[in-house]
Amino acid sequence: MGQDGSPAHKRPSGSGGGLPTTTVANGGGRGGGGGRGGLLPRGRQMQKTFNNIKITILCGFVTILVLRGTIGVGNLGSASADAVNQNIIEETNRILAEIRSDSDPTDLDEPQEGDMNPNATYVLGPKITDWDSQRKVWLNQNPEFPSTVNGRARILLLTGSPPKPCDNPIGDHYLLKSVKNKIDYCRLHGIEIVYNMAHLDKELAGYWAKLPMIRRLMLSHPEVEWIWWMDSDALFTDILFQIPLARYEKHNLVIHGYPDLLFDQKSWIALNTGSFLLRNCQWSLDLLDAWAPMGPKGPIRDEAGKVLTAYLKGRPAFEADDQSALIYLLLSQKDTWMEKVFVENQYYLHGFWEGLVDRYEEMVEKYHPGLGDERWPFVTHFVGCKPCGSYADYAVERCLKSMERAFNFADNQVLKLYGFGHRGLLSPKIKRIRNETVTPLEFVDKFDIRRTQVETKPQN
Amino acid sequence: MGQDGSPAHKRPSGSGGGLPTTTVANGGGRGGGGGRGGLLPRGRQMQKTFNNIKITILCGFVTILVLRGTIGVGNLGSASADAVNQNIIEETNRILAEIRSDSDPTDLDEPQEGDMNPNATYVLGPKITDWDSQRKVWLNQNPEFPSTVNGRARILLLTGSPPKPCDNPIGDHYLLKSVKNKIDYCRLHGIEIVYNMAHLDKELAGYWAKLPMIRRLMLSHPEVEWIWWMDSDALFTDILFQIPLARYEKHNLVIHGYPDLLFDQKSWIALNTGSFLLRNCQWSLDLLDAWAPMGPKGPIRDEAGKVLTAYLKGRPAFEADDQSALIYLLLSQKDTWMEKVFVENQYYLHGFWEGLVDRYEEMVEKYHPGLGDERWPFVTHFVGCKPCGSYADYAVERCLKSMERAFNFADNQVLKLYGFGHRGLLSPKIKRIRNETVTPLEFVDKFDIRRTQVETKPQN
């Protein structure tokens, strides 16, 4: 909810496309576990970018040699250190170019990558119709792999990023911090993580890549009750809060959104696919099958994009993204699906970052972890920041600093058990928040989150 | 073991210092969870490096404008895309510089950072003498947090990296891949991960940072039986292999090394602290207390380095590192410690990468996962590669490609359950290795590692 009570204006998840700009070629965004969609073929765009970077660095090197006589040696540091630095940078770029171009000589049997035939119907895999009973039989036969652990249904968190280095170097650093953040939350809550860095299906690249991976995990992990997809640009910011699974006993899809935006306004941001739970069951396999057809890249995805833009309020013109496609599916086949869909907004299963990141200090002052809502958001989601790509919808500085703040805000909650906290929300340095003791276990009893776990009730 | 039967020449772990060079200023290496040691103050070296990079990019920009008239517009791409790219790169660098300089205005209460008084004795914390009984009592009172799970002692894997972006951009990308690799192994073996990105003790930065963190985790997680430290430049390459804990029932420290190198030659690489297990008990707290005093940075660490160089065979001259200090401690106080130390070399708890990475294809052809030794190494450790830093001991290209191969070699073992594999060990692309089916559970029964887990016996 926005600060004035109305739903905050939300863009789709960071793995979706942002508002198109003249340079939307790379604006397709960093897909969680997928490649980037775009108007130019990705290879050509990358090649151009690399040519630019290589020429820039070579020219810079030449220019340094020329300028040294003018500016003086002192300001530029020692020649050998410069040369070594340059050498390493050039060599790294050359290797990066090689890795990115993926010139593996054993790639001889790779079929020619073309767009899918627009007249063929895309399928995620062979149609399974009895998954509920297959799964039930397997669980009975494998009691050492129950679908509930310590009274809670087993959850597997799926996230990921593309297999190649980010265009923007800082992107990999924030992907690293993001996965550490997820490791911390999941360790405290007994949730397994799968970090996907592979494209299971070249047709469904970019933000669509989550669909085949979710399906694959369901079928490979019958012991898992819920698959929780989470974007790599979404951070946990309430380390204590637990998903209130009891609310969803009769539902199969839990997704953050607003019913009025969905049903009344048909808004393209009525739901957010940056963080949602899908139950491991036949219904979900059917949903994925119905959801996927707009995804195959090329003419199918482009044409589908036009349909979605025409149908959904506020949607700019760009190729079909998974979020818009899901909204369209749930609206156009409302009777088929909506009974089992829980549109959740009592807590921030997805929390749009802009209205949250400046209030962390105020939250610490007034509230406490475990609330999960606007008082202490469960998830802060950096929609549109795209630190991995070249083109963001928001100012780079604002994004990076905000992500740093969110990360440290969460990290403070984790470090509390160990007696430390960050010096400030922008500081990587930590300080002691309590003295060392020869009886450390009293603090374990007091601060270990797993021991103080309560089922939090949503507000209202 | 090396290929010719003699122990392979091993440098200390990647988080330790490598052979010193004239530019050893940044050669202190990337500490796991610590900062970088070095001869120049880190801030000044960073500042110089940033000045160099900023000037390079500015000059390159000017040069491009000049050269465009000569080379032609077509080869350089559109002006607006270049300008936007440049803008983003410059802004990112400026923000990086700000984040790195850590100019948080709330840092007012930070004491002046100076070196520790060489005459004072460094302590990790107040002396605890009854940890075994404290822990035992707590475990009795908290049966819901047993120290064994499914018949195996509870292990917590500790790894980490410095809180700031890597000097070399590719470094963060490989840190990300490395943690994904660890997530996969630990998920399959029920091991919890703590990824440390904080300096708990500014005295013990760099490779020493693991000591206070290990101690902190022991005292905060009484339910954990073993803390397993693993460097961020070490990758799991045998996804099936399990640590044979039964071997270590009478031991408290399990570390890879060679007794003859240790006792006969007093070699500085007789043991490797890049991957070792420490039992959560009083003995370990005492070991950490005895180990730490050579660590405090400044004169203490420098002087200790000289002692270590004089005492240990083959050690170059540089500040004290944790590995050399441990070897020195175990040798000079042999009777106190060695009874509880297991020097393991029956499998590659640490496997020096150089003799391993070229043989992966041969391994796939001849052997199978689960062996953990030179036939299928448990851990491949990229000692000396330092992708996060500026100065490596090995050629950048060799290191990056080898790490890529090791990562994909391991990833293939994980993807097998899902029916995929990499197209080649250098390729981020994957291909199906078996067809989809409507009865996927037969493959779960066949390929899920957790279901086929056997206690592997070491060779001999």
Automatic annotation (TrEMBL), chains A, B:
Ranges of biased composition (kind: Gly residues): 26-40
Alphabetized UniProt keyword annotations: Glycosyltransferase, Golgi apparatus, Signal-anchor, Transferase, Transmembrane
Residue span of region Disordered: 1-43, 100-119
Any Pfam family matching the protein: Glyco_transf_34
Source organism, top-level taxon: Eukaryota
Chief site of localization: Golgi
Localization terms from the record: Golgi apparatus membrane
Membrane topology: Single-pass type II membrane protein
Compositionally biased region (Acidic residues): 104-113
Recorded family membership: Belongs to the glycosyltransferase 34 family.
Full protein name: Probable xyloglucan 6-xylosyltransferase 5
Phylogenetic placement of the source organism: Eukaryota, Viridiplantae, Streptophyta, Embryophyta, Tracheophyta
